[in-house]
Amino acid sequence: MNIRFNMANKEISWLNGNFIDEAEAVVPIMTHSLQYGSGIFEGIRGYETSKGTEIFRLKDHVKRFFNTAKIYAMNLGYSQEEIENAIIETVRRNNLKSCYIRPFAFYDDHGVGVGTAGKKISVYIRALSFGKYFSADTGLKCKVSSWHRMESAILPIEAKASGNYLNSVLAMKEAKASGYDEAIITSRDGYVAEGPGENIFLVKDGALLTPGVDSQILLGITRNTIIELMKESGMKVIERFIHREELYTADEAFFVGTAAEVTPILNIDGISVGDGKVGEITKKVGETYFNLVQGKSKDHQDYLTIV
């Protein structure tokens, strides 16, 4: 695949092998993926480090992007390496330091009908300056949603597909309407699953607890990073089913995710988590993670891709 690089001093996006002015990245309102939620995407972070801007776990994110495409039988028309290079160049051309990157593939067809056979697939990459996802600096107040997490018998939960996030939209609307910052979603069986766009960890008796793959979760790349880092530090990490009531008796709790990074949870359903303050283990997890993504750690340098 021949990708053309066209220099321009504007806000630049990548679309189907070309760099274009972001204002030109438009599609008809009747486009299939807008009407039916059939797009797929990734969320990736770039961080300012002493070496310059570095993208965190680029290869792993792009691999998951292609895995999602495979689940939905979408031929993206590009190799993983080509998409990685396009992401790097998009960040470079926009002269970004700390940023959020959104690769997105969609059915670029505005005919009426759910079917996808023969429909054109377009691939788009956007990179933009990005800081903190949550506005709560001291921790979140969360509500356990009445909406349950989808399961693989309904939609493939390991696919990062646009339509999956309607589940999250409903949970977030309910939480916000009730005066909370964010939702916690449980499985149909009542076990803790995740947040609307984050994985969740609890701290109990010095160990980290997190829902496992059987809890209908997206196996987040940040989640995997935290598990890896904490095990390397000697901390006990347990992946298992977590009952709802364990949220209320945990010593600490926090969300993790590409956008959320490491965000403390201080209150759930009106009940303080631990003493209602950011705990020492949560602080340790956050410091270890930020040292890594900001290039301050000597470990896992292969997770960082220089722009």
The CATH level-2 architecture of the largest domain is identified as: Alpha-Beta Barrel
Under CATH, the topology of the largest domain is which? Answer: D-amino Acid Aminotransferase, Chain A, domain 2
Roughly how many Å is the radius of gyration? 20 Å
Measure the end-to-end span: 22 Å
Please identify the top-level CATH class of the largest domain. Alpha Beta
Instruction: Specify the helix fraction band.
Output: 10-25%
DSSP summary: helix tally: 7
Largest sheet: 9 strands, mixed
- Determine the mean pLDDT: 94
CATH H-level superfamily of the largest domain: D-amino Acid Aminotransferase, subunit A, domain 2
Overall 3D form:
globular
Order of helices and strands: EEHEEEHHEEEHEEEEHEHEEEHE
Uncertain runs are 1-8
Instruction: Count all strands and give the number.
Output: 17
Multimeric organization: single chain
What share of the residues does DSSP label as strand, in percent? 25-35%
How many discrete structural domains? 2
User: What structural category characterises the helix and strand content?
Assistant: alpha+beta
List keywords for this structure.
307 residues; alpha+beta; D-amino Acid Aminotransferase, Chain A, domain 1; 17 strands; globular; disordered N terminus
Short account of what is shown:
The protein has helices at about 30-35, 60-70, 80-95, 165-175, 220-230, 245-250, 280-295, and strands at about 10-15, 20, 40, 45-50, 50-55, 100-105, 120-130, 140-145, 180-185, 190-195, 200-205, 205-210, 235-240, 250-255, 260-270, 270, 305. With about 300 residues, it is an alpha+beta fold.
